[in-house]
Amino acid sequence: MTEQQSPAAVGGDVRLTGIGKTYGSFTAVHPLDLTVPQGSFFALLGASGCGKTTTLRMIAGLEEPTSGTVLIGGQDVTALPPYKRPVNTVFQSYALFPHLDIFENVAFGLRRRGRKDVKKQVEDMLELVELGQYARRKPHQLSGGQQQRVAVARALINHPQVLLLDEPLGALDLKLRRQMQLELKRIQTEVGITFVHVTHDQEEAMTMADTIAVMNGGRVEQLGAPAELYENPATTFVANFLGQSNLLPADVTGGAGEDLLLSAAGARLTVPRARCATEARRVHLGVRPEKITIEHGSAEVAEGRNRLAGTVVDSSFIGVSTQYLVRTEGGQEVTVFEQNMERDARVVPGAPVVLHWNPAHSFALDAAQAIDAGTGEAAA
Amino acid sequence: MSTLTEAAPPQAIPPDSGQPAGSAPRTRRKLTPYWLLLPGVAWLVVFFAVPMLYQGSTSLQTGSLEDGFRVTWHLATYWDALVEYKWHFVRSFGYAATATLLCLAIGYPLAYTIAFKASKRWRSVLLILVIAPFFTSFLIRTLAWKTILSDGGPVVGLLNTLHVLDVTSAIGLTSGDRVLATPLAVVCGLTYNFLPFMILPLYTSLERIDPRLHEAAGDLYARPFTTFRKVTFPISLPGVVAGTLLTFIPASGDYINAQLLGSPSEQMVGNGIQKQFLNVLDYPTAAALSFILMALILGMVTVYMRKAGTEELV
User: Fold this and answer.
1) Do A113 and B235 touch (CB under 8 A)?
2) What is the sign of the dihedral through the CA atoms of B277, B281, B287 and B289?
């Protein structure tokens, strides 16, 4: 058993090559390549059953890949059992040992490796997660948030090269979840260990991660920084799963310099060629609801903006903004989020309106994909 | 702008509305638990408390069947019974303890396999197989062991060929070429008959263990055996305690196994009690023996629970 004494000094890259998992005839994960750079906070995002947890478990060694290899810090660990891998996991329901107190739970990994100075290290770690005074309690005597911090402490104390987090915040209520997101991010920055975080919560992924891999049906749909994924989704799934998108079926009618000309929803629209992810003639034209300006039908629209006319079908006031549902003249429904700053009192259900936005905020995706991919779980 | 302080005032609830006129329903609700306890308590009183008192008074009587028994507070009966049957007590607890340990050694791996390794469908099949012997009478099953262990039977033959009997004879478990009518036979019978009482509580406590705890232990550098030692076994301790008690207590009072599979020199306390009650008709001695057995078991169980309790039963 070879152990790195100071894992931080060694490269903690996680490199998956061609890794896949099938159960009988069901493919949980299609062979995929993924590199998680040392020290990054990496999120695997997707709906339940998309293969994200299976991928994580293959890194941890809890699941044997059907194909491919797992490299951690340049070392091939594919054939190693979990207890020989330089990784530690924070489990979904924490999996704290119910018969051991908090101190012994945190000390478990150190004791198994026969480390000296267990007491000091555990006390320091409990201080880091602010649970010093709970050392002699049993897990069931702690609240969900405290148990979660014990689970993190129990994993981190071993200084793994990679910390794997399997939906660690799923069992917490919303407020605590937000708090723990910041807490985990703080800890990650402090210890500088590579974090691989599995979640179905797109907001959680965007708040915490440097890089997100959006998974769907056992494949990685898109990989990138949160802002990049949000602003420039490559597939309809990503467009719908990450935030909300208006997707309009459109035909490419020509080009003008840097822009493509499209006809959609009974109007002529443009999209920058650089934001067109396909060569196809039939596309889905996408635009995020908050990029659209909504004005009364009589308003003047500046030259060079994409423009759609329609009627307000529904409006709902949600405090910080108002959400409108507008039916365009072409019959499509478009969602618009408008900040509650200077509201036009005439924009009410039934009123004729004009929608316009900067063409640079549009994106075009291949129309061969299902237009509603990823919407089902997006609301969660 | 006007503030809507008047909007829909909630229906004011009078503070004492929790108690509607009269307190009859409340009293009735308070009594419900006692009504529910009644059948069990009545059963215990009629079939446990009263017989115990009766048996207690019997143990303090002297006399004979012809002249009748009278309570004379003759406590010496206890001492005499203990002296006369001391080796019966030693054998009872010795055989019961050995059988309990054997049950644990056989039952734990079995329960573990059923709980963690068997598929859902096999799990129920295996559990049914565990309790399947109960479909046949206890007596018949014990008699069957007589055939299994009979002299010149295949088991004895095999043990002889493997020279196992030489070893067991050397430590006094068997004598010569026989298994029947030896301590080994009695222990085998006890082990066999009480095994399900060990397996079922073990299975229940193992089955409740979240398999993710095993994964967590593996993730925290514990090899499979260490995981068992540090996680699985400690968490299953309540099952071990329950199983050992459910095996040890009835086994110490058992007399069928000793009677059918043993010889007079393997007799246990149960045989003594049976003989005093049914053959000698010395009721005071029989009752005193029963009380001594009960007291000793109670004492041992208390000590055991204290010891096991320090591990903290989850």
Assistant:
1) no
2) negative
